[in-house]
Structure formats: structure tokens, C-alpha cells
Amino acid sequence: MGVINLLPDHTANQIAAGEVVQRPASVVKELLENSVDAKATKITLHIKEGGKALIQITDNGSGMSDVDARLCWERHATSKLNTIEDLFALQTFGFRGEALASLAAVAQVEMKTKRAQDEVGTHIVIEGSQVKMQEVVATSVGTSIIVKNLFFNVPARRTFLKSDSVESNHIIEEFLRVALANPQIGFSMTNNDSEVFHVLPGTLKQRIIGLFGDKYNEQILTVNESTQIANIYGFVGKPDFAKRTRGEQFFFVNQRFIKNAYLNHAVVGAYQDLLPTDNFPFYVLFLDLDPSTIDINVHPTKTEIKFRDEKNLYAILKAVVKRTLGQHTITPQFDFETPAAIQNFDPNFFNKDFMPSPPQIRVDQNYNPFNTERQGSHEANFREQSNQKNWQELYTSSQEHHSPTESPNTQASLGQSMQQEEEDGQKQFMQIHKRYIVTSIKSGIMLIDQQAAHERILYERYLEEMEKNSGVSQQVLFPVVLQFSASDLVLFQELRNEFKALGFVLDDFGNNQIVINGLPAEVNESPQLLLESMLEQYKTYKTDVKITSRESVARSLSKRLSIPHGKTLDPMEMRNMIDELFACTMPYHTADGKVIVRTISMDELERIS
Q: How confident is the model at residue 116 (pLDDT cuts 50, 70, 90)?
């Protein structure tokens, strides 16, 4: 007997589900795209517990007959392909016919659907690829699919799902991609019975503002260019509003969201010399190409495609974005041609009544240049007044001439302080370039990065405050209302307890808004900039599975509030900082591994000399 057997359909569907249904967000993507293909003008999404307990998508699309409603759950059942040639001329999303079959193999699924020409619709219930019920039902035109208990029959897969907030964030990402690609369709989304999005049909700019917030109205620039290779249109963000994470970067090819590092490099390259190396611009860009010039069947999720003329597309995209930035005076513009207004200037344009009059000269009739006594008194008075007026500028000039970093007065006071410390038998500290603290030790000298040291001190302090819930809060004079994107709001809700423990007093304000009534006692900067910076830092750190949410928040806040390089510290401040640093559990490195303390031995110093 042979060793090769044909797999049962149920097993084959579960294997296929491993490629198509990776997490709840995969289900949302497939079902949303099916609703778009069904010509729906209104689509609603409801999720609970990050999509693990419930995913429901309802549309007002074309619906299906009773035969199609049953057949669509079979493998390789599709309305998109008839011949192999159709694969290279696709204008729709799903086409392989495996999504619904794979979904039915790992979840409890319920579907109601009806066509406009039918009097009644069809109701189907499927569990683990088994049809439990099919009946006639009264329902509205369109399709509603409910997915319950994802991976209920594959518990090993379910254990690999992340927390509800993480899975909800992935669902929001898929929702944003489909909603951005189809601004002509109205979308709404609720998470645990709380509305997250509700956008009406409109233009692409209106859709961006509806999804990301009103502040994007003044942060984005229009891109629109037609070439023989592709039509490129959409929006790019101004450099001033770039973020430290890549979350808000969207490429669409023929309305299909894709990931392409090569094209992303083209866009980022257009921002050369306009952005710091760790910042990323916002963009929503659409590329319309001939379907025969691309191959989308190279990845199971269809987020990666191949281009026939990728190099030329790269050059065009980079040039288009760069020109857009230049047209809006983001990049420097040089015009060596004389403007027409100057060339055609008429010198007789102004009325003579408004022509400038010659200056009037006044002479002191009582001034006698041969009166030496009065002249000396006059010059002395002038010098005295001048010196009194300009002494501070002279002192500043002397400071700059003496040292580019330390003034003579500061150096003298520091020297006196160090001399007094020597007499008292205390340790000496010196600040170099307002960046490092230097002190002598028995084996040589010790060099301490002041910003890294303060960051470590704050990091351990905030961890302790979150552990003991002991953060001190100060009330703000006027409450501050902050607008967040939906994805950022999900992160914020995930970190609410950590913020509270640190001393933040925050309340929900509805419509993706948070009101700030109190801040940690040591905070003296803009609440909006502080929270936005912390969330951006948290997005960077949360990808590391070894870091807890508390550690991520402590890192973010300590980096934001640590004293910067360039701040002058007096001897007492340096002493206190060093004492607090070496009271830490790990004084030699920051939380992300940066070296704080370096030592130079006497042997090394002797070799230098």
C-alpha cells in the first residue's frame, strides 16, 4: 500500500486557513474586500474582544442567490476568474476562492444574504466546514456575515493570538486600508459597542480627515501626476508633521493596498535633508497601472506584487513627490529670472505727494569745538553713557573670546567651588561642553553622560511609581482636550492604568478625544506634545516582546523628560545627579543599552601624555 494519501477537504481547508486566516484582522480584510467587490455603498464592522469573540460585517451590496450562498463556502469557488488570462487583468480583490472556505474551517460562521430582485434571502450556519443549517429568511438587500469564536477548533492557533488591544489595532489597520482605498463608500466601525469610525462617502481628502482627524487638513499636500507608466495621485505629509513610526504610510496599486520597500524608499528619498533620520513622513499614494504590467499572485495575502518596470516607476514616484514638496515651498526654490512685475516697473507710478522728502539737518548753535573744557566733558559723558549701555555686550564678547563653552565668571566660580570641595575633602565635579560630567577616581577619571544618566534615574523612578501607584499629580489650570487617531486611542486605552499611576488625570471626552485634568508634578511642557511623543515612543518599543507595557511607558516618559545636552549644571546639581545615578539598580546603561559611564585609567592618561 502506498504512503501518499489525499487529504480530506476539512484538513485541506485548515491548512489553507494557516495562510489566509492568520489572525482576526485577516478575516476583516477578506470580508471587507468582498463587500467592496459586491458594489456596496455602506459597510459596517463590529468586533468584540479584538475580533476573537465576534466579527460582524454588514453591507448593502448585490447579495447572493441561495445557490451562490451555499457554493461560496467551497474551495476554489469564485466569481472573479474563468480562464488563466483573467488572472493578469484583475480589477477586483478576492479571486482565489479560498478565503471563505478557510474561514469556515476554523470558526463558527453565520451568513444572511439577499439580492434586490429576490423576495426573501438565505440564512446559512457553518461550523468547522460543516453546514449546520440553511433556510429561507427575511432580510435586507446585501450580505451580513458573523464570525464567532475564531480558532475554536484549533486551540493551538488561538493561544498565539495577542491581547485584545493588539488584535484590535491590527483590525483598525486593515479597516483604514480598505476605507482609504474606497472614499466613495461609507464605512463605520465599533469596538466592544463603542464607535471608533464613522465616515461618509466623499473625496479622498475628506476620507483622510475623517479617519485621522481634523488636524490633517493643514498637514497634507496634494500629489497628482499622469505619465505613460502610471497615474500617481494622493497626498503626502509636510515634513514638520513627520512621526517616529511608519504607521501612517499607505501605497495602493489599482486600489489594492501593497507593501513595497523599494517604492517607500523613493518617497522617503524625496524628503532628503528635510527629515531627521528617525522620522517618517505621512503619505497616501495611489498608483494606477495597466494590470498586465503587474503580478499580484506572488503572496498569499496579496500585499506584495511585482512590477514589470520597477526602476522607472521608482524614479517617477520620487520626482513627483519631490516636486510636490517644492511647489508648496517645503524645499528651497531658486529663481534667477527677474519677475515681470519688476521688469515692467514704472518709476512714476507713485504720486509725487507721497515721494520721500530729503532729510533735514539740524545744527547745535551753542556747540563750540574750541571749548576744550566743555568738549572733554561732553566726550566723557558720552563714553560713560556708552559704557553703561554696552557693558553687557562687552562682557559677552569677552566671554566668547575666552571660551566657546564656559564663561570666565563661570569657570572662576567653578574653580572656587572645586577648591572649597578639596578643602572640605569632597569629590570634585566638572561639566564639559554642557554634555558630560567628569570626576576623578582612584584609578583615573570617570566620564558620565548627563542626559543618559538622568534618563536612567527617571526610568527607575517611573517604574517604581507605576508599581506602587504613587505618582504625584498637579492639576492643570484649564483642562486640555486632545484629539487622537483611532489606533492611537486604542493604545492609550491599553496604557490608561500606567498613565494614571504616573500622575496623569485623564478622562474620555468622546469622538476619539481625551481631556487632561492633571499631569505628573515634574512636567512643565505642553501636554499634547508630551502624550503624542510618549505614544510614538511606545509604538517603537511595543514591537519588542521582551518589554512590558510598564517598561515601555517608563522608557518613553524618561526619554522625553530627561535633561538635554547643552544644559548647564552647577556643582550641587551634578553631585545630586551622580548620587541618584549610583543609587539605581543599573547605573551603567540606559534601559535601551546606551552607555552612561566610561572610565579612563591612569595608564591610559599617561599614554596620552
A: very high
